[in-house]
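Protein record

Derive tokens from sequence
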Amino acid sequence: MTAEKDPVGVCLIDDDQVYTFGFKKLINLRGLNSRVINFCDGSQAITWLTNPHNSDNLPDVIFLDINMPNMDGWDFLREFAEIKSQLGKKITIYMLSSSINLNDIYRAKKIADVADYIFKPINEYQLRAIINVLREQDAGSNISKYKA
């Protein structure tokens, strides 16, 4: 008998509803055992992340689009840098964009909070690899808790 692994909390911040539908469908169809929340812009995500009622359900990873109404990905990253120390959880951020503009790519790679820049659409193998790494990190952190 194998123990069921905890689902990985995934947050997608993207205003493209068709892409969001496909992203969620990919996770469900491939059995990636993840909880997915999504927001249409960075402002909604910041509001949700800073709400104390959501502190037990914070995501492990955020996939962030660049171009969105109200608060784009760059503005989200500036706000996130200010609030991340208050969240009580390390959240990994990947830029997920269709932009092939080199300025966007270099800019994202210079930001310490961004783990990597991924071109849309993300494929199953990329998504599975990211989720598996997060699971291993979580398992490692649980082991260190028991050693203390």
Summary: The two ends are 28 Å apart (CA to CA). Residues 124-147 form the longest helix (24 residues). DSSP finds five helices and five strands in the chain.
